[in-house]
Design brief:
Length: about 350
């Protein structure tokens, strides 16, 4: 028990149907907002599920019917998985234009909210799946604006100040079908992820496991995404995935999970759980300090590796040369290079 009488145990999700993965998974801590350990986890950039924040409490009534009536008549960003898939792997459209061999797993379209709801509710097994992802801005209806205004901004702004985060960049509304999966990826912003309808399972890995999750190259359209198919991992191609070890949780209405920058996260809706709706709070990272302290954190090492890849790409003008140059640089010169890679 915590000092405030709140259990640190995981939400029981044994009755929910999720996919199985060949991974050892521990629980992400689940703490009440008044528990002092919440601050410790966030300060250490470690994930934690926070209960009792009331961060998006006005949105707890945002089911599809309420949204359809109040969200407005605009067009919304909807992704459609191709070939009857359930995975929504994001990609950079600009990078995709210069990669002729790239075939995205999903496509983006503009759709009215009533059309989205109609297609979602009329879908049958075998139909292509949909996933709405729309920034909450001045295009939504006045009722949603009022709900948005009454979010617990005092609490979230206090977190922003306390941990010296940068400005809020966006609030994203996510409306997902049952069984949808967002494959493992990491972001370069801090994220407070608020669940308002239904449940989602979140599997996370620290930045120190960079080498076990095999991200796509920086120049690839799926930059920041893992190349590993969690449901059918290719251990010959990605052998270090065997040693990957993650954390997991299930968030439900009223829960907020802190997803730190550079932490890998894999998010899925229950196969039999109906629609799920979430709201994200994205913040720019802490401003870089002029004074660097050592040893460097795993997050800092990932940032360095990304910058090296980008600089080499700019210098070589041919992304295909980056790998061979790095291999030549290390091969036969750093005897412990394989051990170092196991640590990143």
């Amino acid at each position: 028990m915590t000092p405030n009488g709140q259990q640190k145990s995981e939400r029981n999700f044994s009755s929910m149907k999720f996919r199985d993965y060949p991974l050892p998974l521990d629980d992400i801590p689940r703490l009440h907002v008044d528990d002092p350990d919440v601050s410790r986890y966030i300060a250490q950039t470690r994930p934690v599920v926070i209960t009792g924040t009331k961060l998006a409490e006005p949105a707890l009534k945002w089911d599809l019917d309420y949204l359809q009536e109040n969200i407005g008549s605009g067009m919304f960003n909807v992704f459609e998985a191709k070939d009857r898939g359930h995975k929504f792997m994001y990609y950079d459209p600009k990078k995709a234009q210069s990669n002729k061999d790239f075939k995205p797993q999903m496509q983006s379209m503009n759709m009215s909210f009533p059309d989205f709801v109609h297609r979602l509710r009329a879908s049958r097994p075998g139909d292509n799946r949909l996933y709405l992802q729309q920034a909450l801005n001045d295009t939504v209806g006045p009722a949603l604006v009022q709900d948005f205004v009454h979010f617990n901004w005092s609490w979230v702004t206090a977190q922003q100040r306390k941990y010296n985060w940068g400005p809020l960049t966006t609030n994203l509304l996510l409306a997902s079908m049952a069984g949808n999966v967002t494959p493992a990826h990491y972001d370069e912003q801090e994220n407070l992820f608020a669940q308002v309808q239904g449940y989602k399972r979140v599997i996370m890995f620290p930045p120190s496991q960079f080498g076990s999750l095999y991200p796509f190259p920086v120049n690839h359209p799926c930059d920041r995404q893992s190349q590993v198919d969690f449901e059918n991992p290719d251990y010959e191609k990605f052998p270090k995935f065997r040693i990957a070890k993650g954390l997991q949780t299930v968030v439900g209405p009223g829960d907020v999970i802190y997803i730190p920058m550079y932490w890998w996260h894999y998010i899925e809706s229950p196969i039999d759980g109906g629609e799920t709706i979430s709201v994200t709070f994205w913040y720019k990272t802490t401003p870089i300090s002029k004074t660097i302290s050592y040893p460097l954190s795993a997050q800092q090492k990932v940032c360095i590796m990304r910058n090296i890849e980008k600089m080499l790409g700019d210098a070589l003008k041919d992304p295909e040369e980056i790998g061979s140059l790095l291999h030549t640089l290390v091969q036969g010169r750093y005897e412990d290079s394989h051990k170092l890679m196991d640590q990143t």
